[in-house]
Every structure is written in C-alpha cells, then in structure tokens.
C-alpha cells in the first residue's frame, strides 16, 4: 500500500473530519461531558488524556456514534473504526474472519482483510482463533479489523492498556509508523503522558467532563528516556517485547477415565447376568445372552421397526428445534412478551405428552404426521428455553461492537446472537433429542399403524416374550446414546474453538 500524501499543516478553511460543538452528555443522572468543543484535523493524531472518570471513553463513544449527547452537535465525516480496550474479537471466528467482519456487515471498504493482517504482522496467523493468541496478537487483529473498515477515522480506546510495558513500547512504535503510512485521522484515549506526547500531533486534556487545554505536541515527543541512562540499561536487560506468542494448551497426561463408561457397562451386564441367572425366570428377567439371541434372530424385523422410530424421532427433533428457536428468540429479545406468554409456556411444560396423545388422535387422526407432531412437541421446550437463555447471555460488549459496525438486526442475529448462543443451544438439543425419541415411542403405544420399536415392545409384552421386549428396548437405548454422543461431540468442538 503506497503512503498517502499528507499535509502537515492542513488548510484552516478545510472542514475537519471530526467536529464537536458544545457537547453535553448525562449518564445515570450525572453530567459526564459538559460543553465539549473540539475539532480534529484531517490526518491528525489526537490524544485524549486525563484522570479516570474524566469522560475520555465517553467522548470517544460520542464520536463513534454509540452515545447520543443530551445537547450539542457532533459531525463525523465517515463511520469511524473503533478499537476497544478489550479488543472484542468473536471467539468463534478465526483471526482472518474477525478482520473480515466489517466487510461481512457491509461496512468494509478499507484495506482487504488479508492486507490488513499483513500490515500488522499477523498474516501468518490468519487461521488461528482468539483463544490461541496472546494479548498482543489479539490487539493486532483488532487493529487490523479497524483498518479493514471503511472510512478515514480511527478511534483507539486504550487498546494497549492490558499489555506489559515492553510490548506496549513496541506497539507504540508500530502504531506511529502505521499512522504515518495510512494517514488516517486518529483519536487515542490513554492514561500515559509519555505515550500521548510521543504519538500525537496534539494532546487534549479532559478533566471533570471538560477540555481544559489542547497542546500542540508535534515533534515534541522524546524517546531518550528509553535510550539513555538507567532505563535504557533495564530495557537492554529485559530485551524487546514480543507480542506474537501463541497460547498452546499443555497436553494432559494419558488418562483411563475414558474407559469408565465401558467399565460401568461391563459391570451392569455382569450384574444383569447374575441377577437373571439367580432368579431363573425368563418370563420376568431374561439373561443378556437370551436377549442377544432374540436380537440377532429377529434382526430384520427389529431393524425395520428401528427405522420407523428413528425417522420419527429425527424429524421431530429437527422440527421441534426449528419451532423452539423461532419461539425462543423473540422471547429472549422482548422480556414483556416472555412475561405475557409465561402461563402458556409453563402449562405446556407441565402437561405430559402422554396426556395430549389421545387429544391429538381426535384432532389429527393416525399416521406418520401426528407421530412427528408429538415428537416435535416433546423436543420444543428445551430448545426454546436454551435459545432464550443463550441469546440473553451473549456478551453486551459484542453488541456494542456490532453497533459500532452499524449491523442490521438480521446481521446481528446470524453473525452474533445465534453463534454466541450455540453452546447453550447444543446443550438444549441433547435433551430435546432424548425427549423427541420418547414422544415417538409414546405415539407408537397409541397408534398401532406406526410399527416402530414402541409397538414391538407392546407386542412382545402381549406374548410374554421378555427377551424380545428387552431387545427392542436395547435398540432404543443404542439410538439415544448415539444421538447424545454426536451432539456432545459437536458441543465439545464448539467449546474447544472458543478456548473453553
């Protein structure tokens, strides 16, 4: 990227890209900013300093459009790119996809994402997730995301405050070089006087919500404190700060805990065998061997019944999940709607599906469709609640990030709320799949036309064939365990990517 031509002394008649006139902001009944008037010239680097609670970050949010002043005028030439102090990288997106977020939301137009990553020295880590990156690397990715956003205004809210002194020193040098190269109008909030004077063309001092002084610091910054005397000696001993360090999880020692479920299963089968042998009543409790002989001997018929039940349960899980999300999302967004519908929600969960089955027979008749309806109703509630909880648990700071990127409600739903709620929703899906299977079997007890495993259990019971009953029940258990294992595997993969 070629360096833009910059004019060290812009024309006084040129309209500044950032202009604030008598801006007043009140939060919680307290005046945070009072009559702030400030212009930031094109291509200028302005630093805001002042004591904590003086209104620096509030002023930055006013410029970013995240806060509306109570009075006064704010004019910003283009949508600003804001780098937050905590970086706010989406944990389910790689470094490259985090940088590409503005383009995904329609506010790109700055540097191409890969070029922005290259400019901050992170192109080799494009496919890494935030959980695998050090704090300094995440700061670089956040800065690259801002560079990929359209507009010529860059806002920095103490982005290096959490870094150690050596890494911060290196970042300051890189940020100064980056500003010279891109020429963006930049506003930096900082507590460091040295940092402000070294980096900025002007420094605005904010105290008690008012700008008390604006100093011209162009060319006044000194690095001699880093290169002379005792401080230089300490710097040489400590070395150069390196922010590009991956977070590698230490490998856990090999554990036998994974064998515990198999051990429990073996002990259960052994206990079952001993109990059945001692009882010696096949019509009450058959041995595992007798159940296995029945299963292998009638496998074609059981397999056909298995498919009937599995098809109903899988489709019920799918439809119930979709319905649960469609209901749970508006409940999460509008608490008044949740309170209004709460009697019906509680009543639906309190009514066993076996009670509703006869009613559905009279309304829908028999067949595959009502079977799927019963299975879907069984799966709906866990997904509805997990969607409600998951969407509400999405970090509010990410919502502020999306507000700064001018995201639409649909973009917020598809790129923030649903991905953010996914771990909770997968937990609900595990329960929903189990309940959908129960609903499918309940309907087979009611409708003899559904020749699934539920009917097989009933028929075997009529003929007092306990081995056949146990073999059908065993297939139901195997199906439930497989679905549970698949969903759990997906959940662990999602959590692993997020470093949890």
TrEMBL record:
Keywords: ATP-binding, Cell membrane, Membrane, Nucleotide-binding, Transmembrane, Transmembrane helix, Transport. Belongs to the binding-protein-dependent transport system permease family. It comes from the Bacteria. GO terms for molecular function: ATP binding. The keyword Membrane applies. Residues 306-488 form the ABC transmembrane type-1 domain. It comes from Deinococcus aerophilus. PROSITE patterns: ABC_TM1, ABC_TRANSPORTER_1, ABC_TRANSPORTER_2. The lineage of its organism: Bacteria, Thermotogati, Deinococcota, Deinococci, Deinococcales. It is a multi-pass membrane protein; Peripheral membrane protein. Residues 18-233 form the ABC transporter domain. It is found in: Cell membrane; Membrane. SUPFAM superfamilies: MetI-like, P-loop containing nucleoside triphosphate hydrolases. It holds the Pfam family ABC_tran. This is ABC transporter ATP-binding protein.
């Amino acid at each position: 990227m070629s360096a833009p031509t910059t004019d060290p002394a812009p024309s006084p008649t040129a309209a500044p890209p950032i202009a604030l006139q008598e801006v007043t902001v009140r939060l919680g009944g307290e005046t945070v900013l009072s009559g702030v008037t400030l212009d930031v010239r094109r291509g200028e680097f302005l630093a805001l300093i002042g004591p904590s609670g003086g209104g620096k970050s509030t002023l930055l949010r006013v410029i970013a459009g995240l806060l509306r002043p109570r009075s006064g005028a704010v004019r910003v030439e283009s949508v600003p790119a804001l780098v937050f102090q905590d970086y706010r990288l989406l944990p389910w997106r790689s470094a490259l996809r985090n940088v590409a977020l503005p383009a995904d939301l329609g506010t790109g137009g700055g540097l191409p994402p890969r070029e922005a990553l290259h400019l901050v020295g992170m192109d080799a880590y494009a496919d890494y997730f935030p959980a695998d990156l050090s704090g300094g690397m995440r700061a670089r990715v956040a800065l690259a995301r801002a560079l990929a956003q359209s507009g010529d205004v860059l806002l920095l809210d103490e982005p290096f405050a959490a870094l150690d002194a050596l890494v911060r020193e290196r970042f300051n040098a890189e940020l100064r070089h980056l500003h010279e190269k891109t020429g963006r109008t930049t506003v930096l909030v900082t507590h460091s006087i040295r940092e402000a004077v070294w980096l900025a063309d002007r420094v605005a001092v904010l105290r008690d919500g008012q700008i008390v002084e604006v100093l011209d610091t162009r060319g006044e910054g000194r690095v001699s404190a880093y290169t002379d005397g005792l401080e230089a000696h300490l710097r040489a001993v400590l070395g150069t700060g390196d922010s590009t360090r991956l977070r590698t999880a230490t490998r856990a020692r090999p554990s036998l805990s994974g064998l515990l479920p198999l051990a429990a299963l073996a002990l259960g089968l052994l206990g079952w065998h001993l109990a059945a042998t001692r009882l010696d009543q096949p019509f009450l409790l058959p041995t595992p061997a007798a159940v296995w002989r029945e299963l292998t001997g009638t496998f074609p018929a059981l397999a056909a019944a298995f498919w009937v039940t599995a098809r109903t349960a899988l489709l019920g899980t799918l439809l119930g999940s979709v319905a649960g999300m469609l209901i749970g999302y508006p409940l999460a967004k509008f608490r008044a709607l949740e309170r209004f519908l709460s009697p019906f929600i509680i009543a639906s969960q309190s009514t066993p599906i076996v009670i509703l089955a006869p009613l559905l027979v009279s309304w829908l008749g028999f067949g595959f469709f009502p079977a799927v309806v019963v299975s879907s109703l069984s799966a709906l509630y866990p997904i509805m609640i997990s969607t409600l909880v998951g969407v509400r648990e999405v970090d509010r700071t990410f919502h502020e990030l999306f507000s700064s990127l001018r995201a639409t409600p649909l973009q917020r739903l598809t790129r923030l709320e649903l991905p953010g709620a996914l771990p909770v929703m997968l937990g609900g899906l595990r329960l929903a799949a189990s309940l959908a299977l129960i609903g499918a079997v309940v309907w087979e007890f009611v409708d003899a036309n559904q020749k699934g495993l539920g009917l097989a259990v009933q028929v075997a019971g009529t003929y007092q064939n306990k081995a056949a009953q146990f073999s059908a029940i065993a297939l139901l258990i195997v199906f439930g365990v497989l679905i549970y294992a698949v969903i759990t595997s997906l959940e662990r993969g999602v959590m692993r990517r997020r470093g949890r």
